[in-house]
Amino acid sequence: MEPGEFLSPAEPLLTGLLLDSLGWNYVFIFLAIGSFTSFVLLLTIAEPIPHPAHA
After folding, report:
1. Per residue in 8-49, pLDDT tens?
2. Could you tell me the keywords of this UniProt record (predicted)?
């Protein structure tokens, strides 16, 4: 199971819980942290470089 398969369905639930208990400021902070974490993870992906003999 990949991390996105677990976290994506859970995000609306976590957002709703934060909104009910803490307010919109914490919701936006939570979503910003999640987006930043996803962006950092995206930056770590290394694209495969084809070998010149196979190109």
Report:
1. 777 788 888 888 898 889 888 988 998 899 899 899 988 888
2. Membrane, Transmembrane, Transmembrane helix
